[in-house]
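Progress against Task 2.4 (sequence-to-structure conversion) is shown through the following example record, which the project officer requested during the mid-term review.
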Amino acid sequence: MLKPQVQAFFDEYTFTYSYLVKDPQSNSCALIDSVLNFDPASGKTSTSSADELVAAVRDQDLTVEWILETHVHADHLSAAPYLQKELGGKLGIGAEIKTVQEVFGQVFNEGTEFARDGSQFDHLFKDGETFHVGNLQAQVLHTPGHTPACLTYVIGDAGFVGDTLFMPDFGTARCDFPGGDARTLYQSIGKIFALPDSTRLFMCHDYKAPGRDEFRYETSVGEEKASNVHVGAGKSEEEFVRMRTERDATLDMPRLILPSVQVNMRAGQFPPAEGNGVSYLKLPLNQF
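Structure tokens generated for the chain above:
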């Protein structure tokens, strides 16, 4: 099995890892879970994090085949449209984006101009679907629970799990967003655990578990199965659901959930500009 060359980029403000995944036998690559920098106090956006990806692609003279989202992120805005404009490539996400768009279209009281069919993306991946990054074989695992549209991309010997799993000492994703479900998440993690133990796993986030000094982004299926504090060492589905439900009840909403979801459900595009040429984000009161 080919081993992709994986380069990680970290945005510490949102604790997000983005990835450049390169075919070792060609100049083809994919970009996964990019970040558009956003200042909630001023409403200003910038592309400093995404520009690191752009520079890396250009410095290595790579061809971007795919710009991939593991899910509709609730903690950062996607830079996918900017990357596509600068570098090309097709924008992909899970087919259940339609469910997320329907749910949050209602939350934000979007009108009929907001399409809820996933048409903002170039490709909607289904569970079990395969694709290529150059010579690298890639497979899609639908791994819902955190959100209905969550995917794990298995590219060569590397899995990109989005928010489904964190490093073993930090655990698993929350399941209390609209459409989330702890029992479904446990079953999704089981699909990841069915991969070979040597499969490298790359996290979308790291928050440094208590007692750990450095940020980390890579582990393996074997390490997660053995020692993930929430779901490893053979913890049962009932144990997990009870723990996850009780823990989620204590968590605050992510600080960027309202701007992030409004943008990311549109494939990283801003809401349509109003008559003055300015785009606005809504702030629904008492909804979460």
